[in-house]
Amino acid sequence: MENSAIEKSSYWSDFEKIIFRFLFIYLLLQALPLDWKYWRHVFTVDWLHPTLTDLFNVSRYTPQLFSIYNSGDYWGLNTFVDWAILAATALIGTVGWSFFDRRTPRNYDRWYYFLRVILRYRLALGVIAYGFLKLFPLQSPAPTLSDLNTPYGDLSSWKIFSLSLGVAPSFESFLGLVEIIAGLLLLYRKTVFVGTFILLSFTGNVFLSNLAYEGGEAVYSLYLIQFALVLLAYDAPRLYTLLTLERTAVPVRFKPKYQTKYGVIGRKVLKVGFLLLFVVLYGQKAFDQYQAGGYQLPTASGLLKEGFYDVSSFVYDGKELDYGDENNVRWQNVVIEKWPTLSIQTRTRLKPAMHPVEVISRDDADRTYEFAGNGARRYYRCEKSNNGELALIALQTQNKLTKFSFTEVQASDSTVQLIGQDNTGKAINIHLRKIDKKYLLEEAKKVGRRSQLIL
Amino acid sequence: MDSPIISPIHSSVLEGTSQSTSDFSGHAWNKGRKFGFRLLFLFFVLMSIPWNVRWYTDLFAIDWTSLHYRDLYDIARFQPSFPTLGKWLPEWYGYADWIIVLLFAFVGALLWTVIDKKTQNYRKWYYWLMVIARYRAGIGIIGFAFTKVLPVQMPYPSEGILNTNFGDLTQQKIYWLSIGIVPWYQVFAGIVELLAGSLLFFRKTTFYGAALLVGALGSITFVNFAYDGGVHIYASYFVLFGLFILSYYVPDIYRLMILEQVTIPQYYYPNFQETWQYVVRIGLKATVLILFLGVLFYVQLLNFWYDPYKQPSSPGIAKLRGYYQVEEFYLNGKLLPFNPNDSLRWQDLTFEKWSSLTFKVNRAQALDLSNGGGNPIRDIDRTFEIAGVGGGRRVYHYYADTTTQTLYLEDKNTATAHFPAGKRRRGADYPNRQEAKQTAVEDVYPADWISSTAWQHIGNEDHMIDPRGTTARRSRDFAKTSLPIIRNKMILHYTTDNDGSSVILEGLDESRDSIKVVLKRQDRAYILTRSTLDAGSYDRKK
Fold first, then answer.
1. Can you tell me the ipTM of this complex?
2. A246: which chain B residues are within 8 Å (Cβ-Cβ)?
3. pTM to 2 decimals?
4. Of A112, B154, B400, B512, which shows the fewest CB atoms inside 10 Å?
């Protein structure tokens, strides 16, 4: 049956009003984009040609009083200081509001409704933006050749989490789909309870995964969870009455009455605009990015032939070093990626670079995903300089072997000879031999686990 | 029509929107609905009955005075399986058994329709069907839950696995390990399952239990498809039960939330008037709660502490633990210099904290692609550390004669094992079900390769764990003879300095060639951080 707009106010006790005032101010301060730093960012976006990065960053607003936008401690513990200040502000606001508002009757149902609208859209935006990064498996790409050649114990737990998701893109897509569907359910008043129920389970799991795997987005997921909890609190009592108390349950039929036709049109425009911008356009951009090779890994093409190479000879400062070299200068093996990255395994390990927060970088040079959380391999960017030299520039700041430059590069189908010097000026002559390595991960996928496999 | 509003959120009640009364007791169901119910009733009852004779023999073989967690787990774990009938059907991703049940239910429902002309509705039957479904799903999922609540289902990676490259693991292994590295998260996943199951035991919380069950197991089903995990059927079994239970509440929720009508729940409950009925109900319920929430927790805790079922439980030699670099390797007296590509030389050796020695050789071997699960009792059959692991890693179980400092080693990878001449092999004995091209051979080691004196020194494996972890099931298994297969074997004598940082292994390898291995322990600092929650006890003083 069709429900007409109903604006009959219900009874609110004084206590409920006070709680509501506090939550109203606190949640609006959290959810509404009031932070000027955010707007400075929004105005730098070319809105005629927005990129996935732009839209993603727009989706991810959180009030940042004490931290610099996109800094390392973004969503760190200092975020809770921000939250405490917002709560304190809300407390002062509540006292003021309660003092001045004793006489005038207010329609709290109406206010509650609009608070919920804002929270619904804020939450939907947050989860849909992340959902598309999983639906088109961008967030966790398939492991690189270097990852496949890294001992399990030399990966950070966060990296293992991401790689483990990356080996099953269908599962990643499924997770993204769940997130998007739940987000869309929030946009329709009557299905909000289904959407929040799914999201509380989903985002609750994301929150705990971030804690367990030392990811950087525990705070952001908590930020979204608080909105979901407030949304569920609205419907929970009714469902509890019906399902647990097994008593007659009364629906809520409050719908705001728009005074003018502009209100009705405005509502439609905002809703359709949201869908066009953050579902249709954003989805399209995410798909384009997926087609273009994602955003976690560089997309330029490499300078040498991709593959896993054994270092069959390593002449350092005129002396041939054998595999068992104790000085740990010798390279053990080399991976040349499809893009201009080369990774080396020596016998010593590194403290790995971390990669806590999801960042969508437009330029290859800013993409840190491939070496983040890897402590066994040294990553280098390959560059060809004007005089024809091949330079390897270390990507990890912890790597002391910062640079190699090769004046002579001789490559055949299965070998590469590199002659040049390291960053201390010592002459090196390296011979690489390509190994046609078969990976169990790939081979078992082809034949299935119930077959005989010799590797 | 007006009722007390429990909710702090207020709404104004409008008159004239009461729900229809078609569901009230006594009202007749139409033919289609009655047939549908008969079909569902038979389907879910057949799905809730253990069809395997083994389930019953196992049940009666349980020694209740010395319980093993698996005794109760096996009661909770069953699903319809008709191997003889299933042969005639296509595989349907393994769902053929469900189709068979559905066919039986369909035939049954037809007969029922012919016989039963009188019944107006099945409200009462529906209630009892819900009881069956709730308890079947609840008990089943709790059996699973405790192996996560006390995290043993996905063990923390062994040192051997920590030194195996990411690409040298199967997808299934990668997923299992990704949970194994975060035991506290595994506990959380277990609690979700435990909560889902427990909520199903009570009528007033059934809805929440079913919703959790569908969410959690739906995700696990997908994981099993995506990672080739192999338990997608059993996981989706719970999704099916959960959806069925949820469907009971859907009409009311739809009416309240979507149609926005005042909703009066009309749940049928049996009225127990006789005392005995009341006693039986409480008695049965209490038995389930005590057995599957109390006793199962306790025996699972003992398993977690002393005998975690997926990792070997006997402690390894205390001195010989850790990651070792192979400094020198002699084969038949000849030194092989270190070269990662050498197909004979050992590299990357680990002594686990339990009774395993692992090392890497750059030579292909047949791999164990199973998930390393099941119900192994002997350490040599606990294959999680080798199942789904490639990269040339060899994992050997050892019995240690500490008096003569001799290790008697056997390859844990049964895919490399041979089959003794004159014996019929059963597919179930091997992890890879497909026929492996294995020829019958004679063992290069004699049958008494471990002398009786050595056995006296080694002792009884059954008693190598903490006495608090011993169970009747464990002892019963040790009393049986082990699988008739010929594994790779080695006999190595070890000498070591005081703290075990330098070790020399000398003896015969799997081809009875003489080897000498000089080892030096490395301070191997892994990036992966170890959790505070760690299964098993391997540092027991003798």
1. 0.93
2. 204, 265, 267
3. 0.92
4. B512
